[in-house]
Amino acid sequence: MARIGIVTCSNCTQDTNCAAVVCLADMRKRQGFFERYRPHVALDLVGIINCAGCPTLAAPEKILRKVRAVAEFKLDALHFSYCMTALCPFLDMYKKAVKKEYPELEMVFGTHKPLEKKEFQAQVGELLCPSISVPRAMTDLIKEGR
Ligand code: SF4
Ligand code: SF4
Prior knowledge:
Elements: E1 2-8, H1 10-15, H2 21-29, E2 43-50, H3 63-71, E3 77-80, H4 82-87, H5 91-101, E4 106-109, H6 117-128, H7 138-144
Parallel strand pairs: 1-2, 1-3, 3-4
The protein binds iron/sulfur cluster (2 copies).
């Protein structure tokens, strides 16, 4: 059996409401970055957690609070989600921080089958900051009332 933890990008899972369904589907189907496990090895998903959020240039170790939530439970491998690998500028720093704290823990950089990276980045950018029909916010009401 392989005990697996997944850490995802907060922007993707929180701001765009992704429940990691594609990560989990490919884990069930042993596709993408789950192909690496041999067919007879059962996959046990110990937990999924999102990252500590941007920006973490000043304190990349912040990720450890999140990783600890799965790493402390006899984990065999920690997968960084596809969205993290495609979007996160802090990935190398996270990798170093996790390696230092959990030297024995295997890290895998990916989950579901990779998509075309530039297109994925553009699509997520549009979800986070839509160019068309930007929703009105409290700021608009405040400014209109002044
Ligand atoms: S870009 Fe990186 S630090 Fe920012 S929310 Fe995504 S994974 Fe977290
Ligand atoms: S890798 Fe894809 S399915 Fe998994 S959490 Fe990120 S956006 Fe969602």
